Every structure is written in structure tokens, then in C-alpha cells.
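Summary for the steering committee. One of the milestones for this cycle was to obtain a three-dimensional model of the protein with phenylalanine bound, which we needed before selecting residues for the alanine scan. The sequence and ligand used are listed below.
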Amino acid sequence: MIAKIQELLAEVEQLQAANAEEVEALRIKYLSKKGAINDLMADFRNVPAEMKKEVGMKLNELKTKAQEKIAALKEMVDTQEGGNDDLDLTRTAYPISLGTRHPLTIVKNEIVDIFSRLGFTLAEGPEIEDDWHVYSSMNFADDHPARDMQDTFFVEARPDIVLRSHTSSVQARVMEKQQPPIRVICPGRVYRNEAISASAHCFFHQVEGLYIDKNVSFTDLKQVLLLFAQEMFGKDTQIRLRPSYFPFTEPSAEMDISCNICGGKGCSFCKHTGWVEILGCGMVDPAVLEANGIDSTIYTGYAFGMGVERITNLKYQVKDLRMFSENDTRFLDEFTAAN
Ligand code: PHE
């Protein structure tokens, strides 16, 4: 056996190869499972006990030599053949972690996508707005509590300039420029002067929709919102509308969906009611149409507005609103698959 090992050692020293195929053939001949060295390894158990040590060392030496020689030959033919095409020396040695889209962006895009398929086009407006677009044109009486310091951030020294507290201001900006038919979806960030906690923040995101044309009815609104809820939360989702009040819509409603976490059976998220509120909506108040230059004797319309954080919480069960703006990558990385 020792003689055989010596013979192979001498052979290995002399190996030559002209190209990658030849190197591979050598690897198979010597190093593969059925190769010469493995055959010897298999015979090893027949070696008498007193010789095992010496033969074992020689065998190991042979194996290492063969591995080194064949690796060296491989490197040689690789460089001769112009190097390995897959080798990019400019690449960093560490795995690059790719960024993810922010969960709010993912959900906002999904909302916009659903309404785009229904023919809504995108409209955007400024976050620093004047009182007219945020409040007056939206039929807020001068003494409406929403204008109160509690809710609105005023720009210092300019009481008529505010950080918009809802995206309804974009409705006003669209109406002043365009006559019906109007069918827009307005996503954007809004600001409210609230103490920051797990369930409230001084800024959040809304998506608002507006549709104005001849003969637009509450039925149209309900149908579009049902379709939205089912696209967003699944085909079995149910909706219910509860009467409500907004200055800019009449009649107004708040919409609940059947709780998608417990399937309507009742859980802590829906406070055991089986329903969760997701948006406000209603028929555009004729006073709003008139204030924005649209003839309310010819046209009617509906509007709705929802919070992106709320929808995201429902989809992904995020328990604390603050996580959305802390930029903790451990949280953000969880949304890689949703991108
Ligand atoms: N602007 C309302 C809010 O911020 C939402 C809403 C929009 C309600 C459109 C009805 C119609 O709460």
C-alpha cells in the first residue's frame, strides 16, 4: 500500500493540464468519490493495526498534495483563459443588504393601485397650505373646532398658513382647476397637533378620493368602497356604513370592515365587536361644490378619506404607530417580502 501511495504521489507531482476540462478530468480521476485516492482510503481498513499510523499519514499527504496540485492547475488555466467571468473584483466582500420599501409606501401604493384600476388618477398638493384650501373651501365654519390650536399646526406669524390637517385640501385644488368629470385619488402626509403615543402621532398619511360627475349617487360610493375593501382585505370582507358628520359631505358616513384579524368573530383588535373603522366618506356637500366653482345643480359627487397607518396596522398588525417613523431596520426589514 505504501508503494502504491508513493507511486501516486510521484504521479500527482507531474500532473499537467491545458484547459479547464482537463483539470476537471484530473479531479475526477484522483479526488472524486470513485477516484484513486478514495479507493485507497477504502482499502485502509485492511491495513494491519501497527502500520495504520504510517499509512494514514502518507494517505493524508497524498490527498493534500493532490488537492493543492489540482487547485494550482485550475488557477493556471483560469488565468490563461482570461480569468473567471463570474469574478468581479470590485464587489464588496460582504453581502450587501438591500433596502426595503417603507410599509406605509407599500400600502399606499396598493391603495392607489386599486383605485387606478377603477379609473381614478393621481393628484397631489402642498403640505404647507392656506386656510382656504384646508378649511374654508371645505365648508368649515369660522368657529369649527378643527381649526382650534389643539388640532392645527399654524405657521408662525401667519395664522392663515397651516400644515394641512387632511388631504381634502387637494380636492379643493383639483376642483378649482378642473370641471367635472373629476375622478382623483390624493395620497399625502398630514399633520395634527397631538401628543405622540402608540396610537396617535403629530403626522400621518391619508389617501383621499373624489368623484364628481352628473348623477353620481351614494350607491356608486358604496359599490366602489366595497370593491376596495375586498381587493385590499380579501374577497370575504364585508363593509358597513354608519351615519357620521363631516363639514364637507352630506350625508356623511364612517365605514367599518369586518375585522380581518378574527374574521368578524371578535378579538382584542376590534374590541370584540367584529368590525373595525377604516374610513370616512359621504356625498360632497353642495356648498363645497359651489365654493370651488362647480355648479351643484348639474353635478353631484362623493368623497372618501382613509388613514394609511390604520390600513397598514390592519394588514400587518403593527401595534405601535411610532414604529413607522423610528427607522429601526429590524422593523423595516420585516417588509422585504412585501416589496
Ligand atoms: N378629511 C376627513 C378626515 O381627515 C376624511 C374624509 C374625507 C371624510 C373625505 C369624508 C370625505 O378625517
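Key point for the committee: The chain has two domains: 2-80, 103-338.
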